[in-house]
Design goal:
Layout lengths: L1 H9 L3 H29 L4 H47 L7 H102 L1
């Protein structure tokens, strides 16, 4: 899709641009359909992997929305360019007479709305650029938060593994203590029996 968007931006003829735009839109719709299927499949993942899978699907959705915005921006630029070319051709093909005040007034009346329309389109284009820039900054912040959450998740897993190891060691110590007590009691009893037998033998 990124490659086709670059081809749309470099397209010379309107027909080629429209064909590429339709192809990109079809690809984006296909990605959106796959994301909806992934939403269903995420719920079938094990609980330990579900959060990570859900995060990946959400990232794909956000990237798809960004691609859709880029396509709309390119379509808007193409429309503005076509409008400018049309108005330029109309101005170049129109004939003016310097001594006809009425014709000059009529031409001025026709040019002013076109200039206002162009100014409004330019302003809309600028607002769209600002919106895309703001969206890019939000995407960067989300990626930073994602990296932070991944680090915290990794540390929690390490802590969980450490606690599991500590519990295992404590159980081994408790078992060893019980075994030592048993051995001590047996040896004490054996020692007492041996002392009794020695005493009995010598007396």
């Amino acid at each position: 899709i990124h490659r086709n968007l670059g081809m749309v931006e470099r397209a010379v003829s309107t027909t080629d641009a429209q064909k590429l735009e339709n192809e990109v839109q079809t690809q984006i719709d296909h990605v959106i359909s796959n994301c909806e299927r992934l939403d269903v499949l995420v719920m079938k993942e094990p609980p330990t992997r579900r959060a990570n899978a859900k995060m990946r699907v959400d990232q794909l959705k956000y990237d798809c929305q960004h691609l859709q915005s880029s396509l709309r921006q390119l379509q808007h630029k193409r429309y503005v360019k076509e409008q400018e070319d049309y108005e330029r051709e109309a101005l170049m093909s129109r004939t003016f007479t310097t001594n006809d005040a009425a014709a000059a007034t009529q031409a001025s009346v026709m040019i002013d709305p076109a200039l206002q329309h162009h100014s409004r389109l330019t302003e809309s284009n600028r607002h769209m650029d600002d919106l895309l820039s703001h969206g890019g900054s939000i995407l960067g912040n989300l990626r930073d938060q994602r990296a932070t959450l991944k680090g915290a998740h990794r540390r929690l897993l390490d802590l969980t593994n450490t606690l599991g190891l500590s519990n295992t060691v404590m159980r081994l110590i408790e078992n060893r203590t019980s075994q030592d007590k048993t051995i001590m009691v047996v040896l004490m009893v054996a020692c007492c029996v041996l002392m009794y037998l020695v005493w009995r033998y010598f007396t």
